[in-house]
Amino acid sequence: MLPVLLMLAAGIHDGDASGRLVFLREVEVESRLVTLGDIVDLSPVPSDLAARVRGTEILRLPADRHRLSVPVGRLSERTRAIAPALSAFLPSAPDGLVTISLRSARPMPARSPRQTPCAVVLAPIAAGEAPRAETLSSPAPCDAAAPPVAFGYDRQAGVVRARRALLVGDAVAAPPAEALAGVRKGDRLTLRAGVGPVVVERDVEAVQPARPGEPVFVRGSGGAVFTAPAPKGAQ
């Protein structure tokens, strides 16, 4: 049974009075991969078209930059190239800048060593893997005064990752529950898009971990990477 990503198309909104797309001037993103839905108000576009293009990648933030300003004219031309169906909705005389900031300063909740509970590994965890809650036992008081710290915090993804390979039965310092993954890289998911009475399903693969209730970047069968809503259940 694959988790299902529900993408319910919204109705058409009034949006900009001119019927043109509006590029947002200040945006914060969770990943260096920036999509059309991150930087453009798609409300003037028919809902089925908006649902198709929302997760389309328009740019990536450079590895050495956490903030980037891009001319609206350049983004408009890029939009025309990657989503030709939006051409009729693009502004006729784009100007100004879109400033994109990476939301990467989410701190890992701190704990005093005396307050750090332990957890037992219930399933093998590879080095660099983001564990789910079911791969660790419920936190409990530690026998050791200083339990081994086996996880490091990935600020970009907002989850913890194993610093080394962990085996079943290993006792480690329990990571904060809110930093465990809801979806892991490589998980197979089902994306369900609904437009009126029509429901379309497609199989996708998570390309990076995501916390429970957060959107996830996925790859479709054709290789395209886009943002999908958080999984809502199992199928």
Features:
235 residues; mainly beta; eubacterium ventriosum atcc fold; 3 domains; 6-stranded mixed sheet; 3-stranded mixed sheet; 3 helices; 17 strands
Q: How would you sum up the global shape?
A: elongated
Q: What is the third-level CATH name, the topology of the largest domain?
A: eubacterium ventriosum atcc fold
Subunit arrangement of the protein:
single chain
What would the average pLDDT be, to the nearest integer?
Answer: 80
* Uncertain stretches of 5 or more adjacent residues: 6-17
- Label the CATH architecture of the largest domain: Sandwich
Number of helices: 3
Tell me the fraction of residues in β-strands, as a range: 25-35%
Please estimate the helix content. Answer: under 10%
Q: Which sheet architecture does the biggest sheet show?
A: 6 strands, mixed
Strand tally is 17
Query: How many distinct domains?
Result: 3
Structural class: mainly beta
What is the CA-CA span between the terminal residues? 5 Å
Round the Cα radius of gyration to an integer and report it.
Answer: 21 Å
Strand order of the biggest β-sheet = 16-15-14-13-1-17
Summarize, please:
This protein is mainly beta and 235 residues long. The protein has helices at residues 36-39, 47-53, 72-82; strands at residues 3-8, 22-23, 26-29, 33-35, 40-41, 57-60, 67-71, 97-102, 118-120, 151-154, 159-162, 171-173, 188-195, 198-206, 216-219, 225-228, 231-234.
Give an account of the 3D structure.
This protein has about 240 residues and is mainly β. Strand 10 (about 150-155) and strand 11 form a beta hairpin. It has three domains: about 10-100, eubacterium ventriosum atcc fold; about 110-175, no CATH class; about 190-235. Helix content is about 10%, strand content about 30%. It is elongated and about 65 Å long. The strands form six sheets. The protein has a six-stranded mixed β-sheet, covered by helices on one side. The N and C termini lie close together (about 5 Å).
